[in-house]
């Protein structure tokens, strides 16, 4: 009997096998594509972060008392005395040392020396000022809104004090300096806004024939209106010279002072008993005079402003 021939797979089976193999191959390819570790993918670089640097603080702040866009040129008043206005300079906080008394002798122009009471050299400074023909004032310690310095009990006149105690302290402070011609406030941002306390103080100042200069440490001071009501000789500070204790800043404040005096005909400056302040005053006062400004005592300015 003849052997049977092998019969090949039907064509339909061949097609099925081919499709299966194709799908299998595609699955393998897709597996490798999507199972690729994230670390191996090339990441896009992050967007750069925009860094905005803060503006560096100025070496000194623009003082609130300065006049905008006002300048003083050396040629403005040169050679015309008094054409720039009158300027009075008060130096505060004397009494702890006599080290700067030499400047009172070296500066011929009239300065006012405002002396704190009850300090080691209170009377010594008064003697020095008198010998140098400088006007003396009492730098009366008054309560501040915020004070972080140490003072002995009842040294600062406070708004919470009974009138009898406040009155006694004022009398004692005035008695320590019999040669003074005026008073201005040391600190006092709280006290100078208190009408009853300032009225008590002003009565004593007026009784002695003194004047008062408001150092302008309080935004809502009652001193000007009260002095006007009481008929007290009164003035107020226009410029602080040395709130920032650098030569550049103090010199800049002299320009501000000149602007003020030019603008209204007079100006009052207050500085402090510091070596640098006194040195700059010594250097800058001749410049002011060259521009035509007249340096006068605070008493004369208040009498003739």
Can you walk me through this structure?
- With 305 residues, the chain is an alpha/beta fold.
- It has a single domain (86-304), classed as TIM Barrel, CATH 3.20.20.
- The chain is built from 9 helices and 9 strands.
- The chain has helices at 11-34, 101-106, 122-131, 163-176, 195-207, 223-230, 247-264, 275-290, 298-304, and strands spanning 86-94, 112-115, 135-142, 182-187, 211-214, 234-236, 239-240, 266-272, 294-295.
- Strands 1, 2, 3, 4, 5, 6, 7, 8 and 9 form a 9-stranded parallel β-sheet that branches.
- Helix 2 (101-106) links the parallel strand 1 (86-94) and strand 2 (112-115).
- Helix 4 (163-176) packs parallel to helix 5 (195-207) and helix 5 crosses helix 6 (223-230).
- The longest helix is centred in the N-terminal third of the chain and has 24 residues, at 11-34.
- It is extended, with a radius of gyration of 40 Å.
- The N and C termini lie far apart (151 Å).
């Amino acid at each position: 009997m003849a052997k049977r021939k092998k019969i090949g797979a039907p064509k339909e089976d061949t097609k099925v096998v081919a499709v299966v193999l194709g799908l299998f191959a595609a699955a393998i390819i897709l597996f490798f594509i999507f199972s690729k570790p994230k670390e191996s993918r090339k990441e896009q670089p992050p967007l750069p972060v925009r860094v905005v640097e803060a503006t560096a603080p100025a070496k000194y702040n623009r003082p609130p008392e300065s006049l905008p866009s006002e300048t003083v040129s050396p040629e403005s008043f040169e050679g015309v005395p008094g054409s720039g206005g009158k300027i009075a300079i008060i130096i505060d906080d004397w009494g702890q040392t006599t080290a700067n008394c030499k400047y009172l002798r070296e500066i011929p122009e009239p300065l006012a020396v405002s002396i704190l009471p009850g300090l080691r050299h209170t009377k010594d400074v008064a003697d020095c000022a008198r010998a140098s023909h400088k006007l003396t004032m009492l730098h009366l310690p008054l309560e501040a809104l915020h004070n972080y310095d140490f003072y002995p009990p009842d040294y600062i006149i406070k708004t919470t004090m009974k009138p009898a105690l406040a009155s006694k302290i004022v009398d004692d402070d005035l008695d320590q300096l019999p040669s003074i011609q005026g008073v201005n406030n040391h600190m006092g941002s709280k006290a100078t806004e208190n009408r009853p306390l300032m009225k008590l103080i002003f009565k004593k100042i007026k009784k002695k024939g003194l004047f008062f200069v408001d150092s302008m440490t309080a935004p809502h001071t009652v001193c000007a209106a009260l002095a006007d009501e009481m008929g007290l000789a009164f003035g107020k500070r226009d410029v602080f010279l040395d709130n920032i204790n650098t030569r550049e800043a103090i010199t800049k404040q002299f320009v501000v002072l000149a602007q003020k005096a030019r603008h209204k005909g007079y100006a009052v400056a207050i500085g402090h008993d510091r070596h640098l302040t006194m040195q700059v005053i010594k250097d800058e006062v001749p410049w002011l005079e060259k521009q035509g400004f007249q340096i006068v005592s605070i008493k004369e300015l208040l009498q003739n402003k």
